[in-house]
């Protein structure tokens, strides 16, 4: 072969290889790569609950399904409002096989969404979380935020499904792939409590310890998807109200002339969804004399979406002198504000570890306490703890401001002996006025920060931010970190990347191979003819003579 022929052969071979490589790359490119959020995986008293798998590698399918469809090798993609809970309940109860589930959550459309639409979404999300959180789900379940890309994807999948054949390696379609390591147990999850003090003013020669009023709110959340458990109302609203109350009283207490004869203790606690485990550890860590000095404690829980009615939950009977006095002080202020405060009594069962309200942990230590909440009844276990529906859109800044005004004015009248006198200590347009911008900014921050305790390290930036903010308004601020005790075991992998591949059918693959093979045969013949001639090409395909003929 001549040098020029060898060069031509080399170039042609390289082009052929490059053609094959580019074709394979084109077929392997992802149609989309999006962030998805995995259903929580945890064990409760050894019982496995939540999603028990993370890896997803199946063809996409949509509802409605053809009769007798086998979904064991399919990943079902469904917008939230198009997914019948009866269908999902049937698959879980009857243990039917499903390759995976991707639930598309509606994004906020602002004014475009009517109140009825928002109410429907909240209702469906609440029921969905109840179902998924308390069941063992053997297949991977992911959530994603719906957008135009998913709209186009669903339209294409519906076109494929209209042929009457589900997507598969034979028919082609879209393939959903989540490459994830096997979820591992979260080792030694911690809970961190943050506290700060506003010391009261002692009189000259007064050696007795001043009484203390505690303002408390838990800041962590729990929901079906830990990476989406923002808890704007429960209990972001309680945390924001506490910070604003701390800011207001720090101004009063900064001047010795207006400093009250009460210590005020502010506590941001963790472990709220887990029977307020952090509150129990926080109280247990106090010296007994400090606990005994607490006159009463006010716990703030879900105060961001009420308009007229707020509830005071107590463990002691309403006839108790302390409870009666506190309730009357709050009632006086609420009447002036034009709102209503009701009282609900629920006796605690010391032998039952289940704690419905945070103040019940105080009651177990014989400390008078109450919980202020927009909820009139105690939530069920692991419910109303900042789930998927609890977003910024569900929380109203004005509701938080009303709560701050109610608590601050009631406390001020108690501390300064102003009961029965119509005096607004924190009057609008005064130096002690409530700051709506402060409330809104902190509410916005909490509404975009997932706060599931087992996935928050003790040096997490969010915890550092809370400590820094409390330090701006109080003294002797410190963080108490401890292990989360109880019956819970949590697993990691809460967020992943979903790759959506467009897969060609086997018919296309066969056609592609036929075209590629024909091209290579023609290329081969061309190279042989151009370098050796037609005779050599014919000799290649000519049958060689047998050994007997050669011998003759």
Automatic annotation (TrEMBL):
CDD domains, A to Z: M28_nicalin_like
Top-level taxon of origin: Eukaryota
Membrane topology value: Single-pass membrane protein
Keyword Oxidoreductase: no
InterPro entries, sorted: EF_Hand_1_Ca_BS (IPR018247), Nicalin (IPR016574)
Gene Ontology terms describing biological process: regulation of signal transduction
Compartment(s): Endoplasmic reticulum membrane
Record-linked Pfam families: Nicastrin (PF05450)
Regions crossing the membrane: 510-529
Family, similarity comment: Belongs to the nicastrin family.
Protein known as: Nicalin
UniProt source species: Zea mays
């Amino acid at each position: 072969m001549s040098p020029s022929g060898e060069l031509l052969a080399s170039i042609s071979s390289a082009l052929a290889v490059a053609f094959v490589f580019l074709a394979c790359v084109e077929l392997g490119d992802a149609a989309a790569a999006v962030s998805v959020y995995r259903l929580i995986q945890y064990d409760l008293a050894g019982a496995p609950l939540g999603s028990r798998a993370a890896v997803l590698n199946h063809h996409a399918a949509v509802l409605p399904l053809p009769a007798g469809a086998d979904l064991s090798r399919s990943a079902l993609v469904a917008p939230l409002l198009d997914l019948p809970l009866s269908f999902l309940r049937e698959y879980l109860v009857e243990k039917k096989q499903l390759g995976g589930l991707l639930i598309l959550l509606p994004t906020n459309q602002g004014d475009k969404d009517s109140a009825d639409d928002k109410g429907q979404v909240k209702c469906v999300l609440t029921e969905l979380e109840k179902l998924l959180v308390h069941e063992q789900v053997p297949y991977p379940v992911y959530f994603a935020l719906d957008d135009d890309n998913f709209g186009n994807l669903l339209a294409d999948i519906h076109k494929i499904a209209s042929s009457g054949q589900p997507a598969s390696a034979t028919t082609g379609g879209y393939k959903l792939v989540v490459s994830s390591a096997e979820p591992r147990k979260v080792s030694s999850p911690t809970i961190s409590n943050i506290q700060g003090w506003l010391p009261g003013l002692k009189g000259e020669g007064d050696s007795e310890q001043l009484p203390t009023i505690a303002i408390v709110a838990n800041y962590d959340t729990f929901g079906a998807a830990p990476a989406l458990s923002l808890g704007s109302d429960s209990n972001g609203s309680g945390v924001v109200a506490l910070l604003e109350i701390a800011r207001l009283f720090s101004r009063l207490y900064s001047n010795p002339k207006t400093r009250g004869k009460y210590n005020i203790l502010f506590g941001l606690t963790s472990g709220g969804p887990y029977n307020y485990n952090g509150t129990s550890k926080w109280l247990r860590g106090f010296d007994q004399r400090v606990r005994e000095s607490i006159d009463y404690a006010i716990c703030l829980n879900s105060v961001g979406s009420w308009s007229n009615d707020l509830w005071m939950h107590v463990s002691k009977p309403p006839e108790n002198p302390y409870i009666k006095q506190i309730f009357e002080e709050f009632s006086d202020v609420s009447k002036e504000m034009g709102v209503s405060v009701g009282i609900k009594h629920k006796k605690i069962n010391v032998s039952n570890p289940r704690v419905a309200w945070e103040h019940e942990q105080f009651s177990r230590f014989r400390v008078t306490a109450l919980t202020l909440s927009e909820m009139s009844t105690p939530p069920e276990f692991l419910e109303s703890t900042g789930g998927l529906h609890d977003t910024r859109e569900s929380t109203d800044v004005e509701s938080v401001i009303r709560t701050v005004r109610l608590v601050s004015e009631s406390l001020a009248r108690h501390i300064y002996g102003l009961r029965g006198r119509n005096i607004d200590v924190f009057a609008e347009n005064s130096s002690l006025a409530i700051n709506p911008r402060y409330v809104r900014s902190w509410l916005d921050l909490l509404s975009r920060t997932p706060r599931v305790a087992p996935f928050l390290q003790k040096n997490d930036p969010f915890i550092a931010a809370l400590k820094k903010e409390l330090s701006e308004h109080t003294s002797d601020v410190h963080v108490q970190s401890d292990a989360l005790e109880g019956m819970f075991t949590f697993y990691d992998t809460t967020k992943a990347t979903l790759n959506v591949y467009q897969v060609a059918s086997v018919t296309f693959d066969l056609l592609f191979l036929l075209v590629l093979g024909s091209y290579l045969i023609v290329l081969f013949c061309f190279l042989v003819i151009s370098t050796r001639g037609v005779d050599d090409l014919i000799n290649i395909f000519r049958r060689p003579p047998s050994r007997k003929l050669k011998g003759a």
